[in-house]
Automatic annotation (TrEMBL):
Domain O-methyltransferase dimerisation: 4-66
Gene3D superfamilies associated with the record: Winged helix-like DNA-binding domain superfamily/Winged helix DNA-binding domain
Record GO terms (molecular function): protein dimerization activity
Coiled-coil residue spans: none
Protein name in UniProt: O-methyltransferase dimerisation domain-containing protein
Gene: ga21905
Length: 88
């Protein structure tokens, strides 16, 4: 529990970093869902930064800021969203 609280700032810093890099705009320009390559190209970052963007997106997806696409059959009562939808 102490570990969780001591590193909880990482999620907010990752979100700030994503916004500063223009990742939400890059995703929006690709119609609401984008691959990592699309995101890197849309932000104007050099392609060598792809592993770092992947890590950033992993940090953001772990606390469920981003909803993942579900590729398996889904019960009708479970809503599905694109992988880039941000939770309120």
């Amino acid at each position: 529990m102490v570990f969780h609280h001591s590193l909880s700032f990482i999620t907010s810093m990752a979100l700030k970093c994503a916004v500063d890099l223009g990742i939400p705009d890059a995703i929006h320009l690709h119609g609401g869902s984008a691959t990592l390559v699309d995101i890197v190209a849309g932000t104007g970052l050099h392609e060598s930064r792809l592993p770092y963007v992947k890590r950033l997106m992993n940090v953001l997806s772990s606390p469920a800021f981003l909803l993942h696409s579900i590729h398996s059959p889904v019960p009708p009562d479970l809503p599905t969203k694109p992988a880039t939808a941000v939770r309120p």
